[in-house]
Amino acid sequence: MEIRGIRGAITVESNTREEILTATQELLVAILENNPSLKVEDLASGFFTCTQDLTAVYPARAARDMGWLDLPMLCAQEMNVEGSISKCIRVLLHWNTSISLEKIQHVYLRDAIRLRPDWANKNKKNGVLGGDL
User: Fold this and answer.
1) Per-residue pLDDT tens for 93-118?
2) Model confidence over 52-81: pLDDT tens digits?
3) How big is the chain by its Cα radius of gyration, in Å?
């Protein structure tokens, strides 16, 4: 078994605790739905970042609220790159799995699709990936 990374990102409209937590949970649920063999107990860790305009709450709080109590998680501020996407939450989950890299489904929602359109449009399961910009 190897450790693989699953990436995901979502944007929010405003810097509120409720919106950040709701969006983060939406993202994590979509990752689980699009990777049906993924079990939370198979995750080694989770790493979240937020753009500098999101300060109301740590996005890992949303995972804790979903019951991910034993998973080590870390939150950090995303680099502030000129012209980059705003109000964005990103996640990198480290997954202990034998699944090949090509079969992992990365999830990009809302305006975050712009970050990796190649991954966002790769597989559209349950209508949560892809879409027009």
Assistant:
1) 999 999 999 999 999 999 999 888 88
2) 999 999 999 999 999 999 999 999 999 999
3) 14
Looking at residue 74, its amino acid is: L
Provide the token pair at 22: 């709701």
Q: What is the homologous superfamily of the domain 2-120 according to CATH?
A: RutC-like (3.30.1330.40)
Q: Look at strands 88-97 and 73-77 and give their pairing.
A: unpaired
Look up residue 46 and give its two tokens: 């989770």
pTM (two decimals) = 0.89
Strands of the 43-50 sheet, one edge to the other: 73-77, 43-50, 88-97, 2-11, 107-108
Q: How many whole angstroms separate alpha carbon 100 and alpha carbon 7? A: 15
Catalytic site residues? 7, 64, 75, 78, 90, 108, 116
The answer for residues whose C-beta is within 8 angstroms of residue 33's C-beta and 6 or more apart is: 125, 126, 128
At 81, phi and psi to the nearest 5?
-100, 130
Domain boundaries, the chain: 2-120
